[in-house]
Structure formats: structure tokens, C-alpha cells
Amino acid sequence: MLKAANPSCLRLKAHSRLEKNYSGTWLIVTLAQVGLAPKAKDSLRIDDGRVLAVRALEISGGIRILVQLDAGKHQINIVSTADCLDPPYVTIRIGPPKADLKPQPARNAQGINRPPWARWPGISGEIRNETAARTIRPRALSKMKTRILTSATGSIGEALSYKISQRSYYDAVFDLNRRYPGHARRDLRLEGELRDAFVDISAGPADLRLGKQQIVWGESVGLFFADTVNAKDFREYILPDTEQIRIPQWGADLEYSKEGSHLELIWLAPKFNRLAPVGSEFSPPFPLPPGRLATGSFDAEQPSLKIKNTELGARLSRLTYGWDISAFYLYTWDKSPVFYRKFQPFPLPTYHFQARYERQNIVGTTLAKDLDPVVLRAETVHHFGRRLSIIDEADDDGVASLDSLDYLLGVDYTWQGRWRMNVQFMQRVLWRYRTGLFQEEALRSTGSVWLRGSFAQDRLEPELLVLSSLERTDALLRPKISYHWGRRWRLAVGADLFEGGRDGLFGFYDRNDRIFTDLTLYF
Q: Which residue, among 441, 445, 364, has the nearest Cα to 402 in the 3D structure?
């Protein structure tokens, strides 16, 4: 049993090799981004004539599975699944099966034979209560959300598998606290949605995923860099888990692997970011100078579902000399609306806004190198012709078009099998920068530190995430401690602390500091 070391919806990265030594024949499988679950057995004896034993070792950035085989010839196929399952899993198929172990047809309650694939899907999920309270006046509960997440996974034969998941929640704070406007209560109080709904089709080196899905091309901590494919739900800023922020999109994801190279092609229906409504706890800043009036359309009309409005992307990866290198291109939409406007000075200074979604071209790269116990990471993302709001009443439409480059350098470090740390340096560079760009600078540098420990046989996990500007006071501090009991319960207590001025990424929410509890039941 495995659990994700970093809670994000990632396809498991599996690398394998066969090794023969004095102790026998071993299949060695290395998995990134996962860790051993609490109380999981690290050694399992199996004797079906092909597999003799399975062992698991925790290494930097993942785990290593040792499968002891008999001396015969083997056909080995590793099928990675596990995008957003809890716990994620990997399937290792070893063949051919022994003749005397030929599976028999299953029987239902009436004793009628049915094929081996005709079985009920695996059902898993969680029930979670999230309660938060403001620490700055007005001191009050800001969240009392009960969320239910369920998923069903299964397979039909060896080449076809599927997953369906849903999420629903009720936030009682909007019935207990009347400080929020009506439109915010309607948007945030109650919700139910279909999350993932896809089928996976495997054919040799090719895999095709069809349906509503999440596609992850970046692995940054705390902020989104190369993770540019799916739209995001920012109604609670960047505070929820990343797999809850990411919005699944309908489409197709074709992957082909051969000799250390991996090609991925995607085709998606458009989807756009969800922003917090005005008057709610984390409503975003608006490009309106103090003392000015605003009229017009603030909700952009979404493009119709036509072929010309779909999103396309390609990603090529290669593992060479231990370096995991990838490059990608994405023809997509700017996921947040662009606010075009006209300024009218008389009789009262007024801004007339018209929100629209615009097309976007993005290219990027990712890089990772495992130097056990250190893992080096890098990501770059280049946006062409990005449209940004400008606070300049002489400007015709209040929008400037310019290129931007975001890049990240990161280091993961694990020591004593107990502590994990991630350090990142992030920077955004704007070409042809113009004075007056709204909440933007020609060069913006950000640093982050993430630290997590594991004590009391993995039951107690202290954690700290710090995100901070490197040029001025603008920071987010997130301490948390979690306690696991059994395999089904987890209690977390922590705080989200903002610091800085109103013009900063984090300082804008300086008066939204909160403490929280998170009680989760897994099933």
C-alpha cells in the first residue's frame, strides 16, 4: 500500500530493470512522488511460481520496489495509474501465467459463471470537515465546510480501465454568518460536481485517456508554474490541496513511450478559472484605481464549444543519463478574463469595463535529476503576447500585450528517512515592461521553503510552507501538524498567515489570517 508523498494528481513515474545476482532474479522498480503508507508492510512473501517475494524501500523522492522472480523467462509490463487516487497504486504485470494457475470464471450469488473482468469497481473516498476562523477583526468563523469525495475505479480486461469521481460540499458558515453578500453565499455555500470521468485504453507502448481528466506537467510546490494545462479554482486562493484547486477538463490525452522517450498529445474542451465572488473572503484585486467608479461587464462570456475553440498541446520527455528532460507547447486560452476598458472623465471619472477571454501560446520545459538524497528540479514557462491590465487613464483599452518568462529552480532533500525539504527560487521576467501595469513588476523574485517531518511511526507529521517575495515584505506562512490514527482518520491543525502591502500577491489578503482544523475520514 502506497500513499502520495506530494499530494497532487500525478501519473506515477516508473522505471524498471532486471538484475541477476547470487540471491536470484530481481525486478527493480523505482517510483517517483510516492512514499510508503503508515504501517504498510515493507516485505511480502508471495509464491505463485513466478513471484517469490516483494519488498519496498524508501528512497529520496519516492520508493524502490524489489520483486524476486523465479529463474524462468518473464514478460513484464508496468502500467502506471494513480492520478488522484488515495492511495495511488501501480500495476506490475508479469507473464506468462503458469498453466496450472489458469483463473477460473467467477460466480455470482446465484452460482452463474461470469468472466473474470465482470467484478464490482473499487470504491474509495473521504469525508472531510474543514473549519477556519479569522484571527483579525472581524473575528468570526470563515469556513465550516463538510466535503465528500468518492471515486470508483476498475478495469475491463487488461487493456481498459476507468475512473469516476465526484465532489460535493456544504459550507455552514454562510448560514451562520450573514457578513457575506448574497451572490457570494449562493456561489460558495453548496456545490456538487463530477470530477474525474475517464477511461484508459492501453495498447503496447501507447496509452489513451478519454474523458474528464487532470493533466499535470509541473511539480512546483505552493505555486503553479509548468502546471498550465487545467483551469484552476481560486475561490479559496491557493490554500486548498493542489488536486482540489485543479479543475478537470473533458478531452483526450494520448501517450506513447519508447526507449526512454515519452510523447504526449492532448486535445481539450476549454475551461476557465473560477475566481472568488466580490465580497467573499478571497475575492481577487480588481484593476480599478481608488476613487473611480466602474460600470460594464465583469463576467466574461465563455467561448462556445466548437472545434476552433478547443485547446491543443504536446509534450516530449526523455530520460538520459539520469536526467528527466521535457519540453512542451500549449495552444490554450488565458484562463482568467482580460478586463478591457474605456475611461470617461466627465461628469464623474468612470471606468467602463468589458471582460473577455483571449487565446494564449505557451512553451515550457521541465528538468529533474536524482542525486540521492538530493533531487534537482527546474521549470520554465514562456507566455507569448500575454495581456495584462494597466492603470493608465491615457491608455486606450487598459490592456498591455507583452511576453513573460517564469522560471523555477528547486532542490528536494531527504535525510534520516524522516525529514523532507523543498527549497525553490522563482522569478518572473516581463519584456517591454510598461509603467502602471496592475500588480506587476519588470522583475519579480519569490522564494519558498517546504519542510515536513514524520514521527511516532508516521502518525505525527509537522509541516511548514513559507512563500515570500525576495524584494519586499510580501509573504505567506503556513504551519500545520497532522495526526493519523489507524488507516482511516487524520486530524490537522494549522494556520494561514499573510503579510505585506495591498499591492502584493500575498499582502493583498493581509487581513485574512486564519487558524484551521481539518478532520478527515478515509474509506
A: 441
Calpha distance 163→153 (Å, rounded): 4
Distance CA 128, CA 148 (A): 6
Q: What does the alpha-carbon distance between residue 16 and residue 506 come to, in Å, rounded to a whole number?
A: 42
Strand ranges inside 416-523, DSSP E:
419-430, 443-453, 460-469, 474-485, 489-500, 514-522
Q: Which H helix or E strand runs over 30?
A: strand 24-32
Instruction: Report the alpha-carbon distance of residue 207 to residue 157 in Å, rounded.
Output: 15
Provide the grid cell at 257.
513511450
| Count, residues in the chain | 523
Are 120 and 106 spatial neighbours (Cβ–Cβ below 8 Å)?
Answer: no
Given a contact cutoff of 8 angstroms between Cβ atoms, the answer to whether 200 and 161 are in contact is yes
Is it the case that residue 66 has pLDDT exceeding 90? no
Residues 6+ positions from 150 with CB-CB distance below 8 Å: 123, 124, 125, 165, 166
Instruction: Give CA–CA dist 227/245, Å, rounded.
Output: 12
Containing 244, the helix (H) or strand (E) segment is helix 242-245
Report pLDDT digits (tens) over 168-205.
999 999 999 888 999 999 999 999 999 999 999 999 89
Specify whether the backbone of 500 is left (phi greater than 0), alpha (psi in -120 to 50) or beta. left
Mean pLDDT over 479-504 rounds to 95
User: Do residues 333 and 362 lie in contact, with contact meaning Cβ atoms separated by under 8 Å?
Assistant: no
Sign of the Cα torsion 281, 287, 290, 296 reads negative
The beta strands (E) that lie in 454-488 are given as 460-469, 474-485
Side-chain half-sphere exposure of 454, counting CA atoms within 13 A = 17
- Cα(first)–Cα(last) distance of the chain, in Å? 14
Alpha carbons 312 and 306: distance in angstroms, whole number: 13
Could you tell me what percent of the chain has a pLDDT over 90? 60
Query: For the segment 104-143, what is each residue's pLDDT rounded down to a tens digit?
Result: 333 343 344 445 444 567 888 999 999 999 999 989 999 9
Three cell numbers, residue 246: 485543479
Are 87 and 75 in contact by the 8 Å Cβ rule? The answer is no
